[in-house]
Design a protein that fits this description.
By secondary structure, this protein is an alpha/beta fold. The chain contains ten helices and twelve strands.
Amino acid sequence: MRILRHYNKVPDAARGAVVAIGNFDGVHLGHQAVIAQARETARELGVPLAVLVFEPHPRQFFAPEAPFFRLSSFRAKVALLAGEGVQIVFALPFDADMAVLTAPDFVTDVLVRGMGAVQVVVGYDFCFGKGRAGDISVLRYMGEMEGFGVTVVSAKGARDGEVFSSTRIRDALSEGRVGDAAAMLGRPWFIEGRVLDGDKRGRTIGFPTANVPLDGLVTPKLGVYAVEVEIEDGPHAGTYKGVANLGRRPTFNKTDVLLEVNLFDFAGDIYGAHLRVSLIDFIRPEQKFDGLDALKAQIAKDASTARAVLGG
């Protein structure tokens, strides 16, 4: 996959692509439908498949002090897009210049002169340009004027009739409904990052943990989860099952939110390794314990519950 951070002086090999446009936060099933349509069109035309995203997310630009909301880091998003067959990612900086670019200028400067797009694929609710003034009708009109095609993918909904959306997934995570989030994503939601060198308190009570920061991701409901973990690098690379606490660790008077993962039947050193931790099921809310004995007893119960959930 090729990642380009600009639309000026795009290499010839990256021009003339089918371009799917969107934030694609989480790359959920609705996003996958847009990309699938773009992939099929690119195959028919014999041209590359590209995706245009903004990094940082426009919401971060307009409301930098707002709570973290992202479902996926840029690293994770790129990996997910690669899994959908995307060959080129235009990850354009969303800055003051981009924020004031009008819809017509976005089309002519970015899509036409910059990328030479032959077909643009968007979702049913796509808006673009300064003040989100451009809509699908504007895009189609500009496409006719500038000589590129436009495909609009209709809303995709779940069995409950609701449309797949990043907002609904965030709501599900905030309520601990990780199964509902997975149904909309097409896979379990995950947190990934490098294992931090923490307090090493877990090993003193018989439950060593790998500590992973959220690093700007949305915060799910605090509590204990059954998890599946992929260690992506190092001598212990592989997939494991475990139990994790996502929270502030009130028993130890901590306040920052951290993911602490205990891998079942594992004794290796994975400090610095990159982990992908998938939340499979919510077990219980986080709570404060009177002492270490009560905490150890509850962790043992949680581990037993997680093993049952995960199938042994």
